[in-house]
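Lecture 7, part B: from sequences to assemblies.

Below are the input chains for today's worked example.
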Amino acid sequence: MAEHVLLRHLDIPDIDDLDVYLEHDGFEAFKSVVKDRTPEEVIDEVKTSGLRGRGGAGFPTGVKWSFLSPGVFPRYVVANADESEPGTFKDRILMERNPYQFLEGVAICSFAAQANTAYVYCRGEFWDLAHELERKIELLHERKLLGKKLFGTYYELDIHVHLGAGAYICGEETALLESMEGKLGQPRLRPPFPAAEGLFAKPTVINNVETLTNVPMIISKGGDWYRSIGTEKSTGPKIFCLSGHIEKPGNYELPLGSTFRELIFEHGGGIPNGKRLKAILPAGASAPILPATDEVLDTGMDYESVPAVGSQLGSASMIIMDETVDIAWLAYKTTKFFTHESCGKCTPCREGTYWMYHLLNRIVHGKANLEDIDLLDNVAHGIEGKCLCALGEFSIMPVVTGIKHFRSDYEAHIGDAR
Amino acid sequence: MSESLVKLSIDGIELEVPKGTLLVDAAKKIGIDIPVFCYHPKLEPVGMCRMCLVEVGTPQFDREKGEIVRDENGDAVIQTWPKLTTACTTPVSEGMVVDVQSEPAVEGRKQIVEYLLTSHPLDCPICDKGGECPLQNLTMAHGPGVSRFTLEDKMHLEKHVALGDLIFLDRERCIQCARCVRFQEEIVDDPVLAFAQRGRHLEIVTFSDPGFDSYFSGNTTDICPVGALTTADFRFGARPWEMNTAASICPHCPVGCNLSLNTRREASSGGGEVVKRIMPRQNEAVNEIWICDKGRFSHQFAGSTQRLTHPLVRKDGEFVQVDWDEALEYAAEGLKTAGDKLLGLASGRTSNEDLFNFRSLMTELGGSAVLYESLAGGSYSAAYGVSGGTNIGDFTSGDAILVAACDLHEEAPIWWLRVKQAAERGATLVVVNARPTRLDAFASYRFHAAYGRTEAAIVALINASLGEEVDAVVVDAEGMKAAGKALATATNLIVFYGGEGMGYAGSESLVRACMRLMDETGHVGRKNNGLIPVWPRCNTQGAWDIGLRPTNVGLLSELDSATGAYVMAVDPAGDDPKFAEKLQGGIFLVVQDLFLTPTAELADVVLPAQSFIEREGTYTSGERRVQRFYPALPRRGEALPDWGIVARLGEKLGIEIEGSSAAGVFAAIAANIPVYSALDYASLAHAPAQWPDVGGADGFFGGTSYRNHQGVGVQLPHDAQDFNLIEIAIEPQQSEAAADQLLLVPVTYLYDRGTLNQLSEVLRPRLEPVEMKIHPDAARKIGAEDGADVEIRLNGTVHKLPVNFDGDVPEGVAIIGHSQGVPIHEPAVVKITPILSRGAE
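Predicted structure of the full complex, as structure tokens:
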């Protein structure tokens, strides 16, 4: 592949050093927009690029920025660094290894949103990283790349780092805002959407770390350059987090639309120990399980093709499972996670995940009968479409698709009891 | 401008409702009950419980053509939304088609009930809510008959968590609807409850110290849709279906909250009927569906064993129990001899019927009927009080409320709540007080006026409203100008005034200043305009209307010239040893009360009266609403209603007084008191349908007690009269205090140590401590230490009590509660002496 757009530390050693970053045209994009462009022009450039939200939903970023309630100030920009999806570890590496590009992305987004304050919301476990980011923000102030009267204009910007308390739900943007306001992390009712009433009830842009890290390159190289990467509707590069039964786990930056086969076998080096590939979780615990058929393996990993074969691209955290994985056990594990992480605000998620967990507990411990499999399926489908936020809806995905594609794994446990 | 209407159909029924109406309310308007748990019409919707799932479709819109897609018949093509929708969070839209009974919707709601029940203990047979429980009712209506959940997987949680002294939480029963948390935050601004943990471990916790510190906490038990929150008063006390319900009116303050008293026969009281609990009764113009905790929990006095049950006559220095005939004859003989030296003392604690008969008797006997209270202004009520059709709940942007010289949060909590909410809806709120109060946070303008200078601040406001120069008494002249302008231009203006820091004369000046303000700004003679006096008693307004007046020479001098006294439901001897001294010598004393009060102990004849719980009658609220209350319990012993005792006494004295029934006395009031002439007892019981519908058969919002079957009362009309308001005496009081002296100001606390609160077992831990509050700087000047005892000399008597440093108390002032053991009725200049600890000597 050509030079990295995001994982640039692989091409440029020590890019996490501000001087090195500046040597490679760092903060030139921010400087150019502040000095020479209007916020509308920046938004248009991002719209042209076709950049879509990398947090999972894939919503067009430029469009999101243009939704801010006109004439209402102050406005805020929040970088969602609550990277919590099982199997996702891309935002952390960006913030650790290519932090200034990320912060420059936050800065450009803030200018486009006409915000003078931006926040980086880090998951609670990122305390070390959060302190490091704070130090780097301080350095940017020292170099006059943040603060008042930037580049001789009247634009000013400050970035603050906010540390969460370690809750999966706070990756949901409205729960994140509640948490930032010092409240219990629970999703808000929408509307109003954050673009109208977000942080402190003011217009707010919330974007994922990876999304924002794309922005400086879009500004410096242009939206047309960016959309030349990837597919027509899913433009640009994407970081794929590869984990599980894979020879070479790690982060891989590939154009959107690259196939599962390419990622797993060319870049990831295939399945260890000569085992057979059984299934893929393409978006951590939050997506339907994909059985590893040839059709699936030859599918492009983008926002259109993955849904076409029955799953979601999400945050592109690919968990690879070989033939030894018991899918009932997998569902037991993911459901335990969702039961633990359910915020408890809405009934189906709070009660349904708890019930599913107890049913799966019986199943994997050989205490269930065949009807319990159908009951589990029914309970899971009962949650579907009734939750307050998307996370409740996600919780059932590994369960219902596991039963659909790998029912025999479940039935094997019933045999245990007999 | 009329509200724009939106047309939609629900279950095939077409209807039009105002834009912005939520689906759940729109359905309610046409009698379709969409089940809810977290939704409550008084709270912001949150869409948490997901019980109100319905199927919704909207007209398909062709973006390119910019019009609605129509079929061959010209009907809009309806696109059903992909997911079920919560009716409590979805506003209506034009052409919306709602299917409450579609198969997915019915199935969806069934699943929600099933999920809820998986972690509910299903301990209905021992649950207080059982029988009036929304969860129980909705399970029967919408839930599955059998649980598929394995019992051993149930979570077990604490079942007796004391959130505070008054409210208990059963964590197993909680369904995490957050109605209680939201009520505390949104409605009463005591955000002392919150969720802790998450998921299935989500639990209600309190963060305040003491726990659940709020004057409104009991309301959370009403709106709790399960038996998770119960009151210390009622829990495990009775089942809802065993109890009788009687409509009543709260006797504790001038708001006149509508109550339902639930009673039951009990083995513990020898098979007698007792009050088990007090619940709010809906009256949207008065208390909506809320009451304060004093109103809810301070009722044990009625059932107290200390109640008087038989007439007593003093014979040879000792009380002897006698029958009514003997007692009344003895009383009549004694009072007859007093002639015009007969003094009658009563207060707004008793009903209109009692006071009317009392005054009639005193007039016939040639004596004087004195109102034993000291807030002025009642004689101006017909012209300047609020009148028929007034509802603070209607106040919004463009309206204004002025609150002067009172602490509504302590004196009349539901008025505090209603004024706060009016301010939150956009009404301009102006607060004029000598010290900070809980209302300040919601005020558009706050002015500090030293004790004794409140009327001067009102005069400054008048000048400001006229665009004239503002008196130097006010620090914030600019703010005063803006506030004056806001009051002058307000669509409606209500003025609440109290008597904090002033005596009768001071409050007379204040009320006249307030009347001038109403005149000058043109806020007289219309509904939603007028004065609301923050009376010390529930029926002070009625007492004034009937013609009782406070003394203008002082009670001591009244007692000096009296040879006989008839005291009804007041206790001067208990309030002040000076009065006790006077009552002891040379006065023939008849006392009529619930208890053998210190005054009654000095009496020649003691007559047992019924409490509001055992009888009927009417009270007139500070908002001039005449409301009926009804008997909830049978009479205790031989006790009679006050109006009946007075009538019987009249009979013995040869004076004809209506004594057949409360209705009869009320008819006499209507015939004799002009402003009551249009009222009749029956129409006071008129109970029109109210919105929101919270007491309906659906039972979604807390049982059956909300429904108002027995009357919302009638507000008195306006009656224009001319008063000379130009002369306003302004009496500075503070300047007289010497350097080592402070102005001791009595203030009102909700949980004072008066008899009624003392007799409520559950409220006892919440009663205000006996102490004096002083600003730390002032305290240091006199050498007092925080928490240490000081001495004050008042009218020649020395009182010892601890000092509490409070930065909110103005300098030069010490604050003490009424009914806290120190006999002080008006501000007094006192010398405060620290009691030196042994170490310091």
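Note for the exam: Chain A touches chain B through 31 residues (CB under 8 Å). Keep this in mind when comparing with the next example.
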